[in-house]
Amino acid sequence: MRKNTLKILCLLFSLTALAQQQKTKKEFTTKGKKVTVYTTAEDLNLRLSTTDNLTFSESKQPLETETSVFVEPSKKFQTFMGIGGAITDASAEIFAKLSKEKQTEFLNAYYDKQKGIGYSLLRTTIQSSDFSSGSYSYIEEGDKDLKTFSIDHDRQFRIPLIKQAIKTAGGKLTTYVAPWSPNAFMKSNKNVLKGGKLLPEYYQTWADFYAKFIKAYEKEGIPIWGTSTQNEPMAVQTWESCIYSAEDERDFIKNFLGPTLKREKLGNVKIIAWDHNRDLMNYRANVIYSDPEASKYVWGMGFHWYENWSGGASMFDNVAKVNEAYPNKKLLFTEGCVEKFDAKKYQFWANGERYGISMINDFNNGTAGWTDWNILLDQNGGPNHVGNFCFAPIHADTTTGNLIYTPSYYYIGHFSKFIRLNAVRVNTAVSRSALLSTSFLNADGTMATIVMNQSEKELIYNLIIGAEKTVVRIPAHAIQTLVY
């Protein structure tokens, strides 16, 4: 008996020692590492360009007159789940008009990790949205039993593009979906447009609809990772929209959507609550997460960036407050785009900077993934069947067949190309407000630190990690990724 006890103790000691060795081995160090700097800048011909190869040297207390970025690798936070964009009907319809050569260029630009910016997330719609050539449904109007359900509409443009995107990305894209509106007969206003509410007698019919859609897409070879309850549930729009109060969404998830997905053996499909702007996300989180029966079905909260419609600033702190209050729930940026399309502003630099500011703040506030809106639109900012024309990171001029890359594409790329799946965010801070920064430690041991200069002048800053530093030059209105 004593021998067995001794053997067990020895084994436990060995395992503990091995675990400690592995932990020590995995601790991040700058010793012997080079820093590769990639830069995109407004007034220079730099677009994700390699601009420097630097080394680390000894660091001491920085002066107040110096500008510094501080990275503390031992302080770790959320795990990164990816960056991507939405494949809407509009994007798929425009893609189909491109030449084969331009289609390949486009797919590589987004989804190839070496040739492009390595997108790993994908959002798409359940039925039509404003970014469709017209409203449509997967069932005949009035079919409460869903006997006529078919996704044939999506097989023409959207499903082929999704399949090509997945293939270009190496066989996997984390794909999630969202509905814009139930059918007219299920709603209080008898219209898929202009808000209205889902009638209680159709709660179960609508929950069954999600399950049918998810199974139909999975049958096409497109695994669905998650679904939100409703896109923008507090906005009465001229396009497809449906209103849910926080209490409505809580009860729909608790009594219908959650149990239905579980019953249909789709319990692994994540449910994303809210899927609307940062302004009201705290109330929605409080209502849904305080109900254990609803909360158990919810993976986390999705949010958008359009709260500035009221004339105010972006409410980044609300994301941090939800993360602080509910640390066991995830956060996912599910939609953002630059509104009010104007072809004269294809290269308007502030559009790209809006992405950089949002992404850095959202990640620093606990967001796990970040999803842009349409991956592709035409020279009119559409198609959009209600005239809600917007910008995309890439536009296609269907009259010339050319692709137009906007600053937003490159700003997103400074994150998506260098932060890999399952990276972990680490503590990062700046000493001057002209700079913004975030850092992620990749699973292969490399660090990606993104630094953005919002000012009108070139800056020199210290990148300080522990007792070592390197000195970096960043142009005015530029973004950099430092890989080391």
Automatic annotation (TrEMBL):
Record's keyword terms, sorted: Glycosidase, Hydrolase, Signal
GO molecular function, one term: glucosylceramidase activity
InterPro entries per the UniProt record, alphabetical: GH (IPR017853), GH30_C (IPR033452), Glyco_hydro_30 (IPR001139), Glyco_hydro_30_TIM-barrel (IPR033453), Glyco_hydro_b (IPR013780)
GO cellular component: membrane
GO biological process, one term: glucosylceramide catabolic process
Glycosyl hydrolase family 30 TIM-barrel domain: residues covered: 82-419
Recorded coiled-coil stretches: none
SUPFAM superfamilies reported for this sequence: (Trans)glycosidases (SSF51445)
Pfam families to which the protein is assigned, alphabetical: Glyco_hydro_30, Glyco_hydro_30C
PANTHER family: GLUCOSYLCERAMIDASE, LYSOSOMAL ACID GLUCOSYLCERAMIDASE
Annotated family: Belongs to the glycosyl hydrolase 30 family.
Name by which UniProt lists this protein: Glycosyl hydrolase
Record organism: Flavobacterium reichenbachii
Lineage start: Bacteria, Pseudomonadati, Bacteroidota, Flavobacteriia, Flavobacteriales
